[in-house]
Design a protein that fits this description.
By secondary structure, this protein is of the alpha/beta class. The protein has a single domain, classed as Divalent-metal-dependent TIM barrel enzymes (TIM Barrel), CATH 3.20.20.150. 43% of the residues lie in helices and 16% in strands. It is built from eleven helices and ten strands. The strands form two sheets. An eight-stranded parallel barrel has the order 1-2-3-4-5-6-7-10, surrounded by six helices. It has a two-stranded antiparallel ribbon with strand order 8-9. Strand 3 (56-64), helix 4 (71-90) and strand 4 (95-98) form a beta-alpha-beta unit. Helix 1 (16-26) crosses helix 11 and helix 4 runs parallel beside helix 5 (109-130). The longest helix is centred in the middle third of the chain and has 22 residues, at 109-130. The protein starts with a strand and ends in an 11-residue tail after the last helix. The model is unreliable at 272-281 (pLDDT under 50).
């Protein structure tokens, strides 16, 4: 359990203070934060709550949504600079980046992906200056149009390649990458580029809002053992976040959800390849 982190999204209806307290009660030593929940109390108070509880911040979600042009581009970049500053203030391991979907009215994927590359070029120097690591997260292709034009771990690695690995890495989320026939080759290639490892399961039927079609580890279709072992073999030594978007799970009592998170993590992740590694410091 030393490597388990609870992402705030999993207990969506808890405040930050409630999530921190829930982690402490459950013996979970790390938390993944979301910017909107941090904003509810302010960055300084969020940092105080987390540090007072002795928790480590494994990630801050999220920056990105770079695929806007015209008048919106300057604001998107400004918001990402604010996200980098928040990540630095919270001493989070990584700022998770979701690239954004197609620009309004466009069908040009190549152009959209060029906007992501251009944004990284602008933001990487600021992230390096503040000591923040950026993590490019690929999302399942069903989100390509509206949420993320980076659909595979290979694409994320290509985007990260021009920059130092300590400044730009990738996020491996089982929900988004489990289907990829080239996943294990990409994981072997990733090496120290892996900045975050997130787990949840793929369940059916998918809900109307496909973003919410995630389940507890072990209740769906993903075989976590080989993925966890490959992430470990790549050299990742950080925390493993459980991040679940699901209305059914959100409506359950928070402590019940956290108990289930611990049990399923112990059964499907902690006793596999990731169990022998130590968290990053």
């Amino acid at each position: 359990m030393r490597r388990l982190s609870l992402n705030q999204a999993t207990t969506k209806h808890w405040t930050l203070a409630e999530t921190v307290d829930g982690c402490v009660r459950a013996g979970i030593g790390a938390i993944g934060l979301w910017r909107d929940r941090v904003a509810e109390v302010g960055v300084a108070e969020a940092d105080r709550l987390v540090r007072r509880a002795g928790l480590h911040v494994s990630s801050l979600c999220r920056g990105g949504f770079f695929t806007v042009d015209g008048d919106g581009r300057a604001e998107a970049l400004a918001d990402n600079r604010r996200a980098i500053e928040e990540c630095a203030a919270l001493s989070a391991d990584v700022l998770v980046l979701v690239s954004g979907g197609l620009p309004a009215g466009s069908r040009d994927l190549g152009y959209a992906r060029s906007l992501v590359r251009d944004a990284l070029d602008e933001l990487v120097p600021y992230a390096r200056e503040l000591g923040v690591r950026l993590g490019i997260e690929p999302l399942h292709p069903m989100f390509c149009a509206d949420r993320c034009v980076v659909s595979t771990l290979g694409q994320a690695l290509d985007l990260a390649a021009p920059y130092p690995s300590e400044v730009v890495g990738v996020v491996v989320d089982t929900y988004h990458v489990w289907w990829d026939p080239d996943l294990f080759a990409h994981l072997a290639r990733a090496g120290d580029r892996i900045a975050s490892f997130q787990v949840c399961d793929w369940i059916l039927p998918l809900p109307r809002d496909m973003l919410l079609g995630r389940g507890h580890v072990g209740e769906g279709y993903i075989d976590f053992r080989p993925i966890a072992a490959a992430v470990d073999a790549a050299g990742y030594r950080g925390y493993v976040e459980v991040e679940i978007f699901n209305e059914r799970i959100w409506s359950a009592p928070g402590d019940e959800t956290v108990r289930r998170v611990r049990e399923s993590f112990a059964e499907h992740v902690d006793n596999q390849g990731t169990s022998t590694a130590r968290p990053a410091t």
